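Design a sequence for this backbone.
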């Protein structure tokens, strides 16, 4: 059930996520998570700034009250679950831009001024790294 992947900075996509709150999939039968995964990989391939961020997928992140959900993570850093994205290139670019800032941060905290507009309002939860908790705001 568990598969080893690169332990570096990553965006983990819920590959089975709904397309929207109201629709499970698009007219071609493709779910939102699968569409976002394809967009993330295309945006990443077109821009070398994103080379240090792995794009990974897994079936269901169990955030099923939301749609098009991702988990941003990096070793020893606070991670974040974000969702309610449109499964398009603009969302993919915003997610990867945030992931670059996250990877460059000391503990996973990115200054609000550095947040891409496309991630604002999409945060669902923050996840402490193994063996740690956050003690400040």
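Sequence:
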């Amino acid at each position: 059930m568990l598969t080893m992947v690169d332990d570096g900075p990553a965006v983990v996509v819920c590959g089975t996520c709904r397309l929207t709150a109201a629709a499970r999939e698009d007219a071609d039968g493709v779910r939102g998570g699968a569409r976002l995964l394809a967009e993330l990989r295309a945006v990443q391939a077109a821009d070398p700034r994103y080379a240090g961020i792995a794009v990974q997928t897994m079936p269901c992140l169990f955030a099923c009250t939301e749609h098009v959900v991702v988990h941003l993570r990096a070793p020893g850093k606070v991670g974040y679950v974000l969702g309610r994205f449109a499964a398009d290139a603009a969302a993919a670019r915003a997610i990867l831009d945030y992931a670059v800032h996250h990877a460059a941060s000391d503990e996973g905290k990115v200054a609000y001024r550095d947040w891409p507009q496309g991630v604002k309002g999409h945060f669902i939860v923050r996840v402490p790294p193994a063996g740690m908790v956050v003690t400040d705001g």
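Strands lie at 10-14, 54-58, 70-73, 79-82, 123-127.
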